[in-house]
Amino acid sequence: MSQSTICVLLLGVLGFAMSAQVAIAMPALFKADERAHAAYAVALSQGTLPTIDTDIPDDPVRYPQLAESLFGADEAHRDIWVANHPPLFYVMSQPLVWLGDAVGSPGLTLLGMRLLNALGFALTTVMVGLLARELVPRRPAVPVIAAAMCIGCGAMTFLGGGIYNDGWSSAAAFLTLFLGFRMIRQGVTRERLIAAAAVGVAAAGLRSTGLVAVFFLGLCVLVAMWLREPSLRTFLRGSFWRAVAIAACIGMAPVVVFGWFYVRNIQIYGDATASSSLFEKFGREPNGTTLFQLVNPEFYGHLLGSLWTDGNIANTWSQAAVIVLTLTVVGLVLDAAAKANPRRTGVLRRISLAPQSTMQHRQDLAIWALLGGYCLLILVNVAGFIAGGGWIHARYAVPFLPFLAAGAGLAALRLGRVFPLRSIPTGPHPGPTAIDEARDLRIGLGVSLAFMVVGLVCHLDTEQYVDGPVSSTFALVALVAADLVMFAVAAYVATELRRRMRPGTFDAARTLAAPVQTGAVTEVAPSRPRASTATSSTPKTP
């Protein structure tokens, strides 16, 4: 396992610890929609697939927290209004419901569902890092910065501490895209197709937006098989229809497994996601058109700012969003200027990277374009939801994190050139590439630690509760213990990052750019030689 992957996994562990601290300390059913999500799982355990008009169980003996939360609720909020979501997350929660019933502790079910979501958000953090590596394979510090940015987004770990299906749905969607990008990098094989189809089914069964990831998975298959042909004309005349058939099979897998649920939504509510019925149920008023939202700067400000201010996080944390986004834009502009007109010294100097072949360059462009298309389609979907009367929540901004975090990583590595490199990498003759890799690691470590500090300070800046879902005489002790564990994990992760992100021991970009052996797998689309895939002999800018 590469050093960058280990660092990303460590940051995922820290994300889980931070979300677990919220899950343990926060009062039961405190967050918006938690009551409805928990009731969905309870209804399934009773043999009922609920609708958005199904009553939340009002049983003060068996489910006292649910019954207590219904006091003073209006008629619409006494129903399981999240029943428009597919049932996979709630099926995953069934062992937790049965465990709570078996031991007579419904609070244990609520805590378990929170921790289940926390695990999903931890995996989301890991997948953001791995997707960043696919976007920027020659800058091994970028995945670590990207994963650390997820920790620094205060709303991410707070969302992970609630009962939501967003953690696992985001992780499954990102894993679906990741497997598609792997096929672009390493080729389309039967084994990868089976794995991608299975993950795509899970993504569609967790949330309707997973269908968007499945659609782009099919596009990844088409692009992967096209890039392995000598030319586009050869692809269109040869393996095009075979690629279309394979992509269609991947797209049909979720339809076969979960298509019935979306058909059921259409029959009951008139559309696959029940959006219009929910707007009517809660009396939401339209807020312009989709196009109006797409050209409205406030829409983007609220959407991206929600990653730092969602939930009970103070609005002052929107300043963190402004700072991060401003530095990202400035850094990317400087990076583009350095590529167009590099200088000998300073922040605009040329960065020496490992050689890259023409094929690898085309793969980079294809992956950036596909992820950009995915984000654009999700953006249109969110804009339509807000135009219909919906509200912006941080979980609607999570799909954009791989794109944003990779861009922030590149910007940080460019802006970090402002500071001089104090020591030269050891070796007989360290070349410019080794020096630039060492500089990247120093910058990456500093930026990653800064994001970790921001995330932890955000936790301290919010109100600490001592009334978690599992009642205990030692609630305050449990809260203090959760805080200590969280900071202990943060200290361990920081130490490990510092130990691993050292020149000479961390992943070398040239290793990541080298061809990857597929092993004993069955090649579906064997590669054919291109005339223009020879490796460049000169280092290229990122």
From TrEMBL:
Listed Low complexity bias regions: 525-542
Segment forming the signal sequence: 1-22
Chain spans, region Disordered: 519-542
Ranges that cross the membrane: 115-132, 144-161, 167-184, 196-227, 239-263, 365-387, 393-413, 443-462, 474-494
KW Ligase (keyword) present: no
Keywords assigned by UniProt, alphabetized: Membrane, Signal, Transmembrane, Transmembrane helix
Record-given protein name: Glycosyltransferase RgtA/B/C/D-like domain-containing protein
